[in-house]
Amino acid sequence: MRNRVPTAFIVTMPLVWTLARVGEIRYTADQMAADARDVWLPVGTEIAHGAVPYLPPAVDNKPPLWVVLQALAASTEADLLVMLLVTGAAHVLLALSIRRLATPIGGARVGTLAALVYVLGLPAFGLVTIADTTVAVALLAAAIATHHARLSGILGGAAVLTSPWALLGAPAVVAYYPRSRAWVRRATTTAVAVGVVTLGGLWLAYGPDSALNAIRYSVGLGDAYWTSNQALHRRSLLYAPEQWAATMGSLARTTAIIAVPAMIGLLQCRTWRHLTPFTLAVALLAEYAAVVTLRVMAGEPVAVAARRRVGRTVAVGFLVGVVVRLLVGVGIAAFVLPGVFLAVSLLFAHAAVAVDDAGFGDAFGTAWGLAAGRRLDVLGVVSLLLALYLVPRFVAAVVPGSTGLLLGGVAIGAGNLLSSGVVGRAYVAAKRVGETEAEETDPYDAPLGADDIPEPE
What we know:
The protein is mainly alpha-helical. It is 74% helix and 1% strand. It has two domains: 4-237, no CATH class; 245-437, no CATH class. It is built from 19 helices and two strands. α4 packs antiparallel against α5, α7 packs across α9 and α18 packs antiparallel against α19.
């Protein structure tokens, strides 16, 4: 019974979000995505009324299974509902696959929690929309999660025939688990058979031109798509490296933002108890991540923040951090309040090194000056940082075994990232306030002294 309730929730929530999205589109001013409104649904309508796929006007730069879905949805005269329900079913499949993939890592509870977080976050991230990539990712995830070679091949082949970007993720089907050669051979043969049957069916039903264009679009070489207004032309991905570069750059940045702090947190969670060369390397890596985050929060581009005077800044920042921690620790031992005072007064020392390249001594002077006169405000920032420090470590201590290590490490990494972001924002705000106060101070407001009065000639 305990397992049935989360499973029912995982299965029903994406469908609930989907139906709510249908209501939004039909009964409010909200609109569906432009691709769905101007390309996918009109193309499906043309095919449903007898047009040949991949020949004008029924041209779309998507693989054949997605085009077939468009046509089937249009033939029902409820195309919007059908396509959104297909996407909702893909979210269900993806959530169940996430649970199955996460369970061996952290146990059944972690797997269920990961799936619940995914389905609850769908509206927040704008994922309740018609998208071929959603369906393809769900099929790929299911292909990775299953241990049956034939089924994995069917799902992987269907993914590639749904979105051209699935080709990038196809190797993960084989690489995620240790697979035998026989398993890889059966899965690959089945995936190829799925492609041959699909494209062969197009050839027999609509002719060679339709099938050849379907092949081009399946591997990302399509150069045009039809809309309800006009034929729009895109450069082929093969001859537009900037499209690949932009996509890969965005993917790399997103992966780094999520994975690097989590990795650092896991390493810290595993190694913090003993001082070893490996522990020192992890600490320096965490210092570098904190420096980059502080600089980005201060307004620097990521590329500049990651390369500007890295060695010197990491070394000085690490030493400043160690000294600040020692001073605060001694202050805490000396009746608590001195430690709190030092934590508030020296909060911005590390940010001064990372953002403004301050030296060791200048960092402490800058921090002390920024905190002067506004220590109660800075105390609120310190309280938030204390919570971001303690909560992840509480999770690691309370949850037993590898599950606690995994959750605690990821939470520590996220806490580190958020802490650096909070300090960076507070540092910029404190500097801005200080500069404003300096500009508002008029040196001529002081009373005139004897030296200010000119002597009579």
